[in-house]
């Protein structure tokens, strides 16, 4: 299952769907070859990082200094181990580093009883990756024409907004008429709103944070359902609400659709941690499964009930999903209902897949 929330233009809908299909197919191919689920997830994310149409890896948004810094995280629902990198530069596929951290953590303690790291950032993350044999990639080679033009456009908007902000402060100091002050405030509000919808050029800050970018947890005595959650959107909003972990916890309710609806409404849109925000922007995909047995006259049928749901407050979200039984991946660009306001309302969709097998 894959997601990318934000704004998806109709003109590029085919490209967005195509990259999601390729990523799904890559993961399923790995599973059919006998790979572990974590390895399949990493393979799918590498496909996304290599695409110039996603804000991850190749073609990522540039930060305010004109550099590419990436985040990535991955979590094993069985061992509950976690690996992540933040603000890493010069590595083509950040998820490879995160996955290596995860696998190293699963090996146990280091010499002298040291606990292996689960989260590395910046230059230290880059150097550790290189020491593990992961090849470096010059940051300038990861930029694309689209990301460079977006950086220049957003930088101009920010510079204009700062000039207007400075002009507003100088106007207040000179104590000019209230009409002039009101005019400056109105223009400033419009420009800041435009910057928000265009997405500032910066690193995707939510992906690496524990409980915010992803969460996975297998069923146990206390939890009847296994869950896997991934988020996308405004990093600051996802971090302050720990949205991935909150949605995973909510999925232990019987009605998954209603549980996700309430979690997104109460833990995200109406979260007290975001009370000062005018618009709360984010998206989440959830995979939930449990074992079930259905008695038949001649045999017992045991299978896995799989539910896949997604929800978002952003204008749109592109999702892709595929099971090992499918011949090809399914993709969909979900959009908010007409007339609703991004960041203040939400869309929620999903489906159920029942995979059955004979128990001897």
UniProtKB/TrEMBL annotation:
<dbReference type="GO" id="GO:0004298">
    <property type="term" value="F:threonine-type endopeptidase activity"/>
</dbReference>
<dbReference type="GO" id="GO:0051604">
    <property type="term" value="P:protein maturation"/>
</dbReference>
<protein>
    <recommendedName>
        <fullName>Threonine aspartase 1</fullName>
    </recommendedName>
</protein>
<dbReference type="InterPro" id="IPR029055">
    <property type="entry name" value="Ntn_hydrolases_N"/>
</dbReference>
<dbReference type="GO" id="GO:0006508">
    <property type="term" value="P:proteolysis"/>
</dbReference>
<dbReference type="Pfam" id="PF01112">
    <property type="entry name" value="Asparaginase_2"/>
</dbReference>
<dbReference type="InterPro" id="IPR000246">
    <property type="entry name" value="Peptidase_T2"/>
</dbReference>
<dbReference type="GO" id="GO:0005829">
    <property type="term" value="C:cytosol"/>
</dbReference>
<comment type="subunit">
    <text>Intramolecular proteolysis generates 2 subunits, alpha and beta, which reassemble through a non-covalent association to form the fully active enzyme.</text>
</comment>
<dbReference type="InterPro" id="IPR037464">
    <property type="entry name" value="Taspase1"/>
</dbReference>
<keyword id="KW-0865">Zymogen</keyword>
<keyword id="KW-0378">Hydrolase</keyword>
<keyword id="KW-0645">Protease</keyword>
<comment type="similarity">
    <text>Belongs to the Ntn-hydrolase family.</text>
</comment>
